[in-house]
Amino acid sequence: MIIDRRKFVRAAGLGVLATAAAPATKLLAEEQLVTDHSGDMPLKQPKPLTAKRWAMVVDTRKATPENVQKAIHACHHEHNVPEFDNSKDEIKWIWSEHFDHAFHEQDLHYIPEHTKHTPTLLLCNHCDNPPCVRVCPTEATWKREEDGLVMMDWHRCIGCRYCMVACPYGSRSFNFRNPREFIDEINPGYPTRMRGVVEKCTFCEERLARGKMPACVEATQDCGMITFGDLEDPNSDVSKLVRKHFSIRRKPGLGTQPEVYYIVPDDPEEHDEPTAHGEEEHS
Amino acid sequence: MRDMPKILLGLLIFVLLALFPVIYNAVTADAGTPPDLVIETQNVPGKSDCVIPGEEMRTKHMDMLMEWRNDVVRLDDRYYHDDHGRTFEKSLTNTCLDCHSNKDTFCDRCHTYMEVDPYCWDCHVIPQELEGGTR
Question: What's the average model confidence in pLDDT over A176-201?
């Protein structure tokens, strides 16, 4: 994002205000407590996680089939994603693909077998320039300007599937059938969808609003396969990772500016050789 | 013009027949038995009044839910503050159904009486439905 003068002045002004207001913010600390409708119990208004540009870094070096499955299961369970017996009806928010398939446009002729078959997590890229948003006739999908999430309003989706045609990543799925009966265990905290609606990953906007990291990130936090954070903040983990490691994005030539970055798998054998430069730090 | 009486008679019969349902209802029908709504549920004790007075809620809840839905989904505005300093989460399942956990004897009875068929439940999960083991 380019910061023009107006934005800079605004940000500087806010900064001054924030410094002045620092003592006051201490009172608000972690959670803002307000009265609940029960009168006595305070309703906990969790502090949302916010960013200027949410982005994700997937470290494929840490991707094992188990880790990948963990992330997929966590997401699909949390969001009531149905599992159909017929692959034509498949609904997917996050899924796994071999590395050479995920990045087929890289024309990877000679790469190690190990790299070729590395399971790679694919999901909505929350593009900076999302083609799905441009084609939606009802504004059922739109880009949230505050933090760059590509949002979905399932109330408004009319199921025309333009967005599915427009998305170059296959990140969107259509409910050809009523999904309810195909959900193993319904999570009552999240709605299901209905027949005739397109759905996709939302970067867990509902969790961010409650101060939680996305479900896939939380499920794999032991291995650190997925990192999520603010790319506009130079001190965030995602910023540090993309500065330190060689990362690629899917189909960059299309100009969609995807915001999911992949740290490429390295060859485990080469890793042991003393001449490897992969891990050297230049920061 | 000889046939005028016949025509008029025919017309009269036609008009009467056409208006029969209206006339019949006007004479015989009452509003039916108003639905018997169960307001007290096991979740209600200890909680204060509804978000807005019941009388208003009766006519406004559909608009309010629609407004809340847009606020939450599109504007990321998730909390409702009323004039008495109370705060509610703008959520059908977490706030409304928290007290009115009896959809079948509260929401449904009135909706059936009014012959409206809201599609909220096509997607939103009724918590107690799950407890019963049905989907």
Answer: 94
| Residue recorded with tokens 């990321």 | B76
Q: Which of A126, A123, A122, A120 is nearest to A141 (CA)?
A: A126
Cα distance between residue B126 and residue B82, in whole Å: 26
Task: Identify the structural domains of chain A with CATH numbers, from first to last.
Answer: 54-266 (3.30.70.20)
Gap between the Cα atoms of A240 and A236, Å rounded: 6
Shortest alpha-carbon distance between residue A42 and chain B (Å): 9
| Residue A158 C-beta-side C-alpha neighbours within 13 Å | 7
Most confident option among A36-40, A188-192, B44-48, B96-100: A188-192
- From residue A208, alpha-carbon distances to A49, A54, A111, A143, A217 in Å are 5, 10, 38, 16, 12
CA A231 to chain centre: 12
pTM of the entire structure? Answer: 0.77
Provide, as residue numbers in chain B, all residues whose Cβ is less than 8 Å from the Cβ of A138: none
Q: Cα-flanking dihedrals φ and ψ of residue A261, to 5°?
A: -110, 140
ipTM: 0.74
Give chain A's contact residues with B (Cβ, < 8 Å).
Answer: 34-40, 43, 45, 80, 142, 144, 146, 151, 153-155, 180-181, 183, 186-194, 205, 209
Phi/psi at A120 (5° precision): -120, 125
Q: Please name which of A193, A154, A81 lies closest in space to residue B123, comparing C-alpha atoms.
A: A193
